[in-house]
Each structure stands twice: as C-alpha cells, then as structure tokens.
Amino acid sequence: MRRLALLMLCAGAIGCGLLGLAGVAPLSAQPDPTPEERYASPLELLLSPDGARLYVLCQGVDEVRVLHAATGRVLRIIPVGHVPRGVSLSPDGRRLFVTNSWDDTVTVADTNTGSVVAAWAAGFEPSSVVEDRAGKRLFVADRVGNNITVLDAITGAEQETLEAGRGASYLAMTADGSRLYATHVYPNPTPHRTPPKSEITVIDPQRAQVIDRIPLPSIAGVFHIALSRDGHLGVVGELHPKNLVPLAHVEHGWAFVDTLTVFGADVGRPVEVPLDELDRYYARPFAVAIAPDKSRIYVSHGGSDCVSVIDERRMLAYIHAHPEPFAEDLAASAHYVVARIPVGKNPSGIVLSRDGLRLYVANRLDDTISVIDTRTLRVAQTIQLAGPKTITPLRRGEQTFYSAQYAFQGQFGCANCHIDSTFDGLQWDLEPDGFGKDIVDNRLIEDLRGTEPYKWNGGNPTLVKECGIRTEMYFWRSQNFDDRRLTDLALYMRNLPSRPNRWRPADGRLTPTQERGKVLFFRTADKLGQPIPQSNQCAYCHSGPKGTSQKSFDVGTGRPVDNSPVFDTPQLTNVAMTAPYLHDGSAQTLEEIWTRYNLHDRHGRTNDLTKDELNDLIEYLRTR
Amino acid sequence: MKMKLILAILAATAAALTLAAQSTARPVKAAQAARKLNGVPAVPRFRFENYTTANGLPDDHVYSVLVDGNRIWAGTNNGLAVLENGQWNVYTPADGLAHRAVLSLALDKRTGAVWAGTMGGLSRISAGRIDTYTQLNSGLSNDVVYGVSVEGDNVWVATAAGACRLNTRTGEWSLYNERNTPMIEIWVYGVSAAPDKVYYAVWGSGLLEYNQKTGAWDKYEDPDGENEMVLLKDQGLIHEITTSVSYIDGVVWVATYFGDSHYDGRNWHNFLTKDSGLPSNFTNTVKGIDRNRAWFGTDKGLAYYDGTNWAVYRPSLTTGQPEMTVRDAGGKMTDVPVATAPAHNYILGIDFQGRDLWVATAKGLSHGIYQP
Question: Which of A278, B27, B239, B341 has a CA positioned 20 to 30 A from the CA of residue A288?
Fold first, then answer.
C-alpha cells in the first residue's frame, strides 16, 4: 500500500475524469516515502479525562501521538492500523479506540501503557468509534458499509449491523449515554434529479437499535456532530449543495451553502443555520464543539483555514425569531457568528478543554495544532508535529485540492464535490453549454492513471486541462492556479490510490458467483451462440486493469438534454461504492443499468441473461 | 418421480421398523394434556378484539401480522399499518413502500428493522426510513414476495420466481432456483430461517432445507408423490403443495393445501381433518410455538394444537356466531361457549404477543387476548 496519498483526498473538478500532463513536468510514479518522509496529517483530537494529555490521530503516519496538552511535548506514540480516521476513549479513559479505515479494523490501546491490546475486525471502512457507558458495546460507523457495526466491547465479536445513512462516518454519544447519533458523508439515495436527503441516525445504545432518523433535507455531506453536556443541543456540520440548478451563478452563491443543523430540546425542531456571509464563504464545516456552558459553538472549516465562533444564545434567538427556513439567507450569520479565527491548513478535528478555555484544532495539511484561547479568540499557541520539513509537490497539490481559496469569494474547492478525494453521490448541471444540458454524475477520482481522457464527453485529454483552464474559467470564476500549483494538483490527483475493494476475496480467488459473472463479462457469444459484436462486449469497452478502453461510445443512454449520446467509458474502480450510475446518474443501482436502461442491448448484450446470471455479472463487477 | 418412488418404497419399508418409534416421533404428549377444565382439555382461551376499516385499519384484507414489542404491524391489501399506543399509522407506496399489498412481514430482532414482502418488492422499514428492493433495482428474484425471514445478517426471501438471500452487511444477493437447488417449481411461498438451517416451502416442490454450515440443500417431498391420496401418512411430508413453514426448537412445522406436517429431524407426523382437530386441510399458514405446540391458519378457522389436543376458534361456518371447539386425544369434541371469535375464518397470518395472539384474516385483524 502506498502510504502517500492515503490521506483523504480530493481532487479536481466535479464530474469529470482527469489527468494527463502534456506540456508540464512529467508525472512519474512516486516512490513510497519512507516513514520519516511521511507527513503526520493530524485529523482528529481527544483530551484525556483529566485534560493532561492530548491524543492526536495522525492519519498520514498511522499513529496516535500522545502529547502533553499544555506543552505539546510528545509523551508516547501508539502505532495503529492503516489510514486511521476515528478515535475515542472509553468512558473511564482507560482504553483508546481507533478506527483504521483501510484495514477495516479497530485498534484498542491501553492508555496507561500505550500498548496496543487488540485489533478487532469491523465493517467496511470503519470511520468512527464510540463505546457505550456500560462498557458492553462498541459502535463503529462504516463509511463503505453504510452502517453501524456493533461489537462486543470486551471480546470485539461482532453482534450486529445497524443500517445508517450512506457513508456513515461520525458518531457522538450523549453524556448520559442514552443516545448515540450518527452522520454520513454521502446522501441517501433519492430519485433522479430530486433534492438530496441526508439524516442523523439516532440509536438507543442500551438496545443497540435505531430508534429515529432526523431528516436533513437538501443536505449532501454531513460531518462531525457535537452534543451539549445536558444533551439538549446537538449540532452537525454539513454541506447544502445546489446541484439541481445550472452551476452558472457562482458569484451569487449558487454552488454550496455551508451550514449547521441544530437540533434538540433547546431548538425545538431541527433547523439549518447558514455560516457563510454575503461576500465571503466558509467552506466545508467539518468539526463542531459546544462550550460547556453552551455559550458558544465552534466550527472548523476545512476549506477556509479558520474556525467560526457562534454565540449560541444569539443563534437561538435568531432561530426563534425566524420560523421560516433561512438556510440560504447569507445575511443571517452576521447575527450570531462572532468571530472567524484563522488557523492552519485544512483544519479538521477540534476538541475543547473541559473548562472550555482552550480549543485545540488539528490542521491536517500543515501538521500543526492550533491552541485557541477562547477568552481572547486568538491562537495562543501552535504545536508543530514532527515530520518532513519540506513541502513536497505532492503535499502542495493536496493542500490545493482541499483549499477553497481559489474560488470566487472562497466558496468551494475540489474537496467539496470530491469528499475526502472520492465523490459526492450527486449529479450536476455543470457545463457551460446551456442550462439544463448535459447533466453529469460525479465520478470517483481514485487510481486515475490510465483512465484519461476526462469528463463524460472525453473532452479533456489531460489532468492539467481538466483542472486548469476549465476550472479557472468555469468553477472558480476567480484567480486560477499558477503553473506550479496546477502541476502539483495534477500530481496529487494522479497519485490518489484506490482504496481496498471490500467485495474482492482477500485471497484473490473469486467466489463461484463472481467467477460465473467474470465469464459473462468476457464472453464473446450470447446464450444463443450468436457472436456478440466486439463493441457490444463488456470487456471491449471496459477493458484493461481499470476497466476502461479510454474511448467513447454511444451505448444508448443519451437523453434529449445531452449534447451528444457519445460518452467516455468510465473506469470500474470500486464501482460497487459509486452509485448512482450512467453519465447522468439515472441508474440508481448497477442492476438498473441493464434492467431499465439497456432495452435494446446497446450497453452490452445482456437481455439474453436470466435474473441470476445478471446477478452473477453484478457480483463480479463489484470486485473491480 | 423416480426419486419419489424410491422414497415411498423406502418409507414403507421403514414404516414397520419405526412403529416403535412412532410414539416418540409424534409431538410429545404435553403435560397440559392431562389438565382439564370441567372435563375439557385446558387449551388457551381468548377474548378477540377485531380491527377493520371501521376502527383504523386501511383495509380489511390482512395478509400478514407481526408483533414488535408493543407495536403491531399489519400487512394489508392497502398498505402497511402499525398499531402503537392505540393509534394506527399507515405506510403506502407514497412513503416509499414497495407496493400497497403487503404479503409477509419479518422482524430483525437485533436491529429492530421490519422487512415487508409485498406484491411489488421487498421493503425495509427502519425508524421511519423505507428502503425498497425490487427485481429491477436489486438482486431480488421477483417482485412478488410471499415470505421473508431474518437470521443474523441475512434476509431470506420467498418469491413467485425463486428464493433469494440478501446479506445486509455486504449487500450481496444470492439467488436460489431450479438451477442451483433441488427446487422443481419456483413458486416459493414461505421461509423460516435459523442459524443452523433455513427452510423454504415451495408450492409444488415440497420443503427445501438449506444447511447453513455446509451450504448443502436437501429436499423433502410427499412420498405419495403428487397423488392427493395419502397412502403413507406419516412417512414424509403430507403434500407437495406447501404454503408455509415454521422452524423452531429443531422442529419443522409445514402447512400445505392438503394437510399439515411436523418433522423433528427423524420422523414425520402429519395432520389431516379426518384424524385430527384440524378444521380444514387447506392451510395457509403455520406458526410453531415450540417442539410440540403450533397454531394453524386455515380457510375454515384458526386452530391450536398442544401436542395432544386441538382447539378451533372461528365464526361459525353456518351461523357466523363465535365458536370454539376442543378435540381431546380420544377424538372427543366439545363446544366451548365463547362470546368472541376471530374476524373471519379465512386465516392468513399469526403472531404471538406474550400469551396473546394476533391473527390476520381475510376480513380484519384480530387480537386474541388471553383469558386466564
């Protein structure tokens, strides 16, 4: 496994493909960096119950570093699994839990000795973990599994899986242990070209059952959740995309609104609260903390390198005075946002000291911890984590990818649509070729080498073109990347690795079902013995290790709103997790590609297949 | 057919050898058989309260019923109704339900999710969210879902065109039909899953058994073949046309349109109207309580069997008045005066709530309130 890009990544322009680099520095494969060359990339933070130790989840080096909270001195380093994403302490503070998102495990460490005592299997891409107050169960949010895996907190044995939102990623338990809340980064499935929907999944930890789902209408991309100590106020950071209208009015805030949803007894009903201003945006609210006395709410903005400070009483007063939805009223935030505190690059996890006087902020992309004095609302201390002293082109590319500074008014960056360098599950009216024309589904951007050209129409032969002029002219509507930054960005994207395929057997041997599907994928004659024209064989268009011939075809899926029915052949990398499908996202599932949108056998010869043969084919595709 | 013949011969040969075992092959004579009340076996008695469209049910035709703690789910011809705190709430296709006609229900006891098999697909209802699987958007074998059963991470489904299994952890579908199981017909009516075995009732194809450990299939057929005369009564499944199966405590209870069966893994014991208290051989559903006791839903009333005695609860077939009859081990029939009965004698679904009973009928949902 390459350890570089492993960070959560991102990348370029929405809905396209990417790369190739004619005319710029050649992009060679990057060697695996040695441990000392790897950036710490602090993603999440925790404080010990006594506040003396700061636990820093360093995703880039697969470690939890235990720091002296006052001085920043490293006390201990706990090695964990690959690409750790979530960290928590047991209620008594004796055990540390870490989710290793690419290992599908949970590391259990003894906080007294710092030793790893167990590594338990979890679901697909475990991303957050919380133990119940009784110490009986461990709840693990699985991003690729879309569920919450419940483990026995003593043995690690899996007890059950609870259906959560798509891309389940973040968890928070009330102080009394009576409720567990879960959020998810990809929207739940909805009919084609309808507003996205997300949810806050509410779990009763005692029964280990989902008991409620708080709807988050029009939201796609929900991140951390925070709860007040009395349990009466909950806050989530989220994205409110405007993907159903043409992305033609960026200067009027028509791409995203960065919002919170607040809920609980203090609010009465869930309310979406905007964080942006009329002429300045605060991209990607990621982590949230509530002051012990509920006087303030703190929000890190991953794309804007700052922390917003909200006066909670003024916010509630505004909410109660405005019963109608005001999520898109960019004048609203002036009534309750009291400060924007600049911090490091890509601020991610935050944690507040028990007395509420210090706020620690993990700046993932410059390997620092900002310590904010909440009385002065200034950064009082910056802790530099050990790591490479120089910034490599790859790192600069990653910083560019996650920054919203290049867009007009700082509205959004690559990572808005490519959440953690993946996709967003949305379809956008992107292209400047007429309103309502060429609706395109957002594609996964991992493992891009050998998949060019980019865009659904195959119009961009290189990543530089994809992320350069096009981005400048169309997305950012502002300054663009200089040559070096563009080269770095393309380098970063070109090196994004593919996450493990969860459906491919670990030993590489396909199951009988998958084997049968593979035979169908590569067949050259149909069941009647008739030769299948080459251009109608699965393996012809979806050829090679990435599953793309890098050519465009008309497979009969064009719509009247498309300028051309000819589309680039998308790669099949981790295709199981990238629903919906087809160029415009009209197929909700892999099955629908053929059961609904291949009536004339133009998208492969499939209408001779039985139901179970089609199922075999799909089970094989899921291994790609 | 050849296999059936061989089975029949083997069964006949074995009959003599197993005579001694027959007494133990039959459901154990329960201790309560000795208990009598005024000379009548002490079978459970109920006061029935019935729900129809007159008091909140969306449709009188109720295909299925499921007890979920204090919530009662009723699969009707016009939506999935849930009774909670005395109030009915109804889910319809407008809420995302696969189809308005809900034929089968199952509870995932671990997660609390309810699975609804409908005439148009399979829906999962979890804390108000409905996710629907159809033959077009998923690996579901067919949209007509007659039966559903949850075991661990797997949801086992019986459809009008084969059986299938959804692994909710991986999203993988496995399809079972005539190509990879001993199934001849693919009209699958019922399913009952447990950690060790899964049983499918296949219309015209008998009973299918899936061994969870080995992944092997086995098949139980009527040794009399498709002959509707019962030549060898306790030598195998009573009939090929099975409609429902209930696997509990290592025992399989099977309903058919021509009588019912009990199988303990070694021996069969069958029930026909002519020699049991079963009110009709035409049985829509069976639900076992344990190794010895079961409830049967027929076209002529609701029947209870305690291993020895029978009781039938229904509106009289002639007068429509509430009726309860008890048949003891000796075949003596006793009428028990009752003031209430299930809403209709065409019974489609049964579930238990403690000692209470919930019954889906063709003309309403009935709550049998246990009378101590």
Answer: A278
